Recover the amino acids of this structure.
């Protein structure tokens, strides 16, 4: 009996040890297979992937510009860029306007009481600054000379275009362009929805609604939700035949729900457009024919929208554009807090 | 939807507050609801929508199948776009509800014409598995009005949420059971 139990006991102990070891190994395998920390991904089939990588790649043959300069901005939140007389570069952000010479040296700074949303510079050097609900005007020396009346709580000013005798102010909140005289008197509204007359109005899903004066004397207004650019006389009459734009994620069109987010006009009347979502800057002919890419997503700091990540609503940073009398293009890259200066590639560098 | 006592059920309640743009008034009503359930002071799991990157793990790591995580839509933030990038594939053939044009693999998003050129998008919760694909599409181009939340009608209230363990963005957080949703656009939350 004794002998028998002595010989069974070690075997039994060995068996228990083996079972415990196997269980431990099985446990480790199960843990590894179940991937509790999620490092091996969701395991969802490919149909659940959302991938814009192929749309982000730009054919190098389509890129007609190269970066020739850069202005680093000492601003936390740069918002807008504009070009004024003598090709001086104006940047709005934080609570200030910074002014740079064409050679990128800093000239001066205008301190503001609040965060600017947009800006434009008139031919006389007057600086028009769009706050959330009103326009402030500064003379070339940086002295505030006018504070236009508030446009109310709904107003979200996004762009300003000064002309000879008018100033046009894009208001994404009210979905119209305000027409002012240069003294700040409101003369009218452009593009208001009027169902009886079959006017759909501007479609502005997010607060990116740009305007610019073209050398042909017509105002250009982006209708972002329709992916179109409209033309208006300074009296506010629409020039329908001059409307252009195509909705497409392909390079020749405007991508996403609403684009372009920004436009600028070259001295010869051609258009520069900037898109959000897939940050890309392109040049179109004066009639809207696609010409070339100025810069693609690889040029810009990754923006929340360019990484397909969710983001804090209404705090999206989007590129802004301006062009000088030489045809140089200025792109505000807000996340990198810099202005990229781009010029057409020379024949031999293509 | 009202139950036999005339009370609004929790699912409808959440739907309504999200529909209304979410934020205003949720506090008091949700606390009252939680008090009625006797859970006031308890904490439950929820997703911080500003930290979530819609990685897909919410669909597969929940102990429940389908997951307790679902997409919600804050209508107050939505642009009612014709081309909704949360609804359509990046390169749709046409802007219609053809299955080949839809981004959601389960067909959980419904598109309804409102007035020219605006459309409303609603989530059919019975079809949504919380994969986050539409969230990515909406955030990539749009206003980010689609986002993920743990549906507390369904969540089992695990002590250790297995999605929270697998969430590389640390988007899962404990919130008061009396105020269990973190809605975008809400004060202090974006
Ligand atoms: S696991 Fe985290 S990051 Fe991924 S979808 Fe869920 S909450 Fe978002
Ligand atoms: S794409 Fe995914 S998260 Fe969005 S509604 Fe469909 S199943 Fe839900
Ligand atoms: S607590 Fe449990 S049931 Fe709720 S979401 Fe997490 S894993 Fe799913």
């Amino acid at each position: 009996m004794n002998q028998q139990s002595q010989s069974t006991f070690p075997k039994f102990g060995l068996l228990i040890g083996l079972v415990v070891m196997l269980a431990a190994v099985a446990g480790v395998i199960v843990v590894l297979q179940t991937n509790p920390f999620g490092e091996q991904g969701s395991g969802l089939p490919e149909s659940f992937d959302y991938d814009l990588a192929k749309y982000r790649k730009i054919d190098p043959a389509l890129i007609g510009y190269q970066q020739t300069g850069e202005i680093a901005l000492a601003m936390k939140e740069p918002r807008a860029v504009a070009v004024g007389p003598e090709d001086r570069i104006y940047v709005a952000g934080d609570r200030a306007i910074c002014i740079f010479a064409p050679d990128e040296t800093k000239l001066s700074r205008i301190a503001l009481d609040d965060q600017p949303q947009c800006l434009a510079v008139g031919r006389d050097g007057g600086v028009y600054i769009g706050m959330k609900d009103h326009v402030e005007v500064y003379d070339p020396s940086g002295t505030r000379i006018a504070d236009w009346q508030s446009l109310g709580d709904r107003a979200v000013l996004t762009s300003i275009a000064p002309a000879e005798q008018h100033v046009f102010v894009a208001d994404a909140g009210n979905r119209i362009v305000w027409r002012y005289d240069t003294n700040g008197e409101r003369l009218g509204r452009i593009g208001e929805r009027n169902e009886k007359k079959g006017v759909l109005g501007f479609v502005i899903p997010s607060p990116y609604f740009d305007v610019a004066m073209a050398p042909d004397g017509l105002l250009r207004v982006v209708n972002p939700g329709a992916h179109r650019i409209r033309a208006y006389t300074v009296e506010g009459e629409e020039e329908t035949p001059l409307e252009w734009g195509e909705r497409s994620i392909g390079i020749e069109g405007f991508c996403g729900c609403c684009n372009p987010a920004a436009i600028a006009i070259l001295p010869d009347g051609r258009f520069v457009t900037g898109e959000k979502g897939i940050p890309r800057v392109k040049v179109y002919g004066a009639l809207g024919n696609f010409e070339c890419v100025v810069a693609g997503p690889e040029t810009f700091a990754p923006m929340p929208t360019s990484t397909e990540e969710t983001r804090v609503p209404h705090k999206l940073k989007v590129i802004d554009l301006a062009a000088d009398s030489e045809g140089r293009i200025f792109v505000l890259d807000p996340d990198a807090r810099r202005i990229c200066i781009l010029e057409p590639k020379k024949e031999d560098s293509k | 939807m009202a139950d036999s006592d005339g009370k609004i059920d929790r699912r409808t309640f959440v739907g309504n507050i999200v529909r209304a743009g979410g934020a205003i008034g949720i506090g008091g009503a949700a606390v009252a609801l939680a008090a009625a359930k006797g859970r006031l002071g308890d904490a439950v799991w929820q997703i911080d929508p500003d930290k979530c990157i819609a990685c897909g793990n919410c669909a597969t790591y929940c102990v429940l199948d389908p997951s307790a995580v679902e997409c919600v839509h804050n209508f107050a933030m939505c642009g009612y776009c014709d081309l909704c990038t949360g609804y359509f594939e990046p390169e749709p053939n046409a802007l219609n509800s053809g299955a080949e044009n839809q981004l959601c693999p389960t067909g959980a998003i419904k598109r309804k014409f409102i007035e020219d050129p605006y459309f409303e998008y609603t989530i059919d919760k019975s079809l949504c598995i919380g994969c986050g694909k539409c969230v990515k599409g909406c955030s990539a181009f749009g206003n980010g009005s689609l986002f993920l939340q743990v549906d507390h009608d369904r969540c089992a209230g695990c002590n250790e949420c297995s999605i929270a363990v697998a969430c590389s963005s640390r988007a899962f957080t404990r919130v008061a059971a009396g105020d269990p949703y973190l809605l975008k656009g809400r004060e202090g939350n974006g």
